[in-house]
Design goal:
Number of strands: 19
Strand order of the largest sheet: 10-11-12-9-3-13
Distance between the termini: 59 Å
Helix content: 10-25%
Shape: globular
């Protein structure tokens, strides 16, 4: 029997994390910082109050170039790619033939090419799927020589503009090429915390210098994966592999907003992508279960995997993400619940150590989303 532990990959910032005293853990095949000496709670709070800097270099950056990239890519996604303006990006979904979600990703129009940012655990499968599905005339490159940093929080704009003044004008989902303290970066105004912020793509060789430059700013603290998870959960944002996966449809997941009007059933360019039949059917008829945010009665966190039941203990759903929300001041969760029970207002409970914890479905994120729209 082979008992060897697989060797973990390292991002270009591995030594930077070690130098700051980070606690490293395995994540999607990489050694990643789960927290720094400041601790998860304070890292979360600092991001909400000032600015947190995250290493997300484990994610895949995929460059697509050639003729008719937008039209060909649109055949694989239910998003409007042909109408995506230069220096703009949008949230998108790769779907399978059964209408489930292969991956959620960001797609940016960079003028002479498109840039996709995909999840770390999915990137090899995504690249293989894209190569097999797109015409040979489209060149695809997984840019393993690039790093990706996320700078998030209400002070992120001020701190980054000190180093790159032109970035102050970027609005939510706008992108561009900038020099940050003399380091060339591709920057998008986006992130996954619910806060205003940016993602910075940089050559791996330049990533440590950029990281050091940013953490030297008084507003910025390095933040690990632990706080990143609690921040995104408070903002009501899905985590792939937990809240959405290959069995989950966009309608079930509450992601109809991500499908642009021209691509919706009845729209000018509706359908034509994998899973379009299920999407159209559920769009019209509704799904039998729906993702919902869950307010929790009491102080006990309700974790992923907890059953959601009615007063009689009958199964109605499952929690897919749960934990303590430092900004919300209590436990927060999301999960999937029988649609009929939601529509009927059936009292919901989580099973927790043979006790029933009351749950209240809510559509409103646990914290206000503060994206900068100009």
């Amino acid at each position: 029997m082979n008992t060897e532990t697989p060797t973990l990959l390292q991002t270009p910032l591995y030594n930077s994390h070690i130098a700051l005293g980070a606690k490293m853990v395995p994540f999607a095949g990489y050694a990643m910082p789960v927290q720094y000496p400041l601790g998860i709670l304070k890292e979360h709070q600092h991001t909400r109050a000032q600015a947190g800097l995250f290493d997300v270099s484990h994610m895949g950056q995929v460059r697509l170039s050639g003729e008719n990239v937008a039209a060909e890519l649109e055949k694989l996604l239910p998003q409007d790619i042909q109408g995506l303006a230069v220096n703009r990006q949008r949230y998108a979904l790769l779907m399978n033939d059964d209408g489930g979600i292969r991956d959620d990703l960001m797609v940016a129009n960079c003028g002479d090419h498109f840039l996709l940012v995909v999840n770390a655990a999915c990137k090899q499968a995504d690249v293989a799927y894209l190569r097999a599905s797109l015409p040979a005339s489209i060149e695809l490159e997984l840019m393993d020589d690039r790093a990706l940093l996320a700078l998030q929080g209400p002070a992120a704009r001020r701190a980054l503009a000190r180093l790159a003044p032109a970035v102050a004008q970027l609005t939510f989902m706008e992108t561009g090429e900038f020099s940050v303290g003399g380091i060339d970066c591709w920057i998008s105004c986006s992130g996954y915390t619910g806060e205003d912020g940016f993602e910075l793509s940089v050559a791996g060789s330049q990533a440590p210098a950029l990281f050091e430059l940013l953490v030297a700013q008084e507003e910025i603290e390095a933040v690990g994966l632990g706080a990143r998870d609690s921040l995104r959960l408070e903002a009501g944002l899905c985590l792939y592999g937990h809240d959405i996966d290959e069995t989950t449809s966009p309608v079930e997941a509450g992601l109809k907003w991500a499908i642009n009007p021209v691509r919706r059933p009845g729209g000018e360019r509706a359908g034509g992508h994998p899973g379009a039949d299920r999407l159209a059917r559920e769009w019209e008829e509704g799904a039998t279960r729906r993702r919902t945010l869950l307010q929790i009665d009491g102080r006990a966190p309700v974790r992923e995997g907890a059953n959601i039941v009615n007063e009689q203990g009958e199964a109605l759903g499952v929690v897919t993400s749960g934990g303590f929300g430092p900004t919300a001041g209590g436990p927060v969760a999301m999960g999937y619940v029988n649609a009929a029970a939601l529509d009927a207002g059936t009292p919901l409970f989580a099973e927790l150590r043979k006790k029933l914890i009351p749950l209240k479905p809510t559509a409103k994120p646990f914290v206000e989303q503060r994206y900068y729209r100009g």
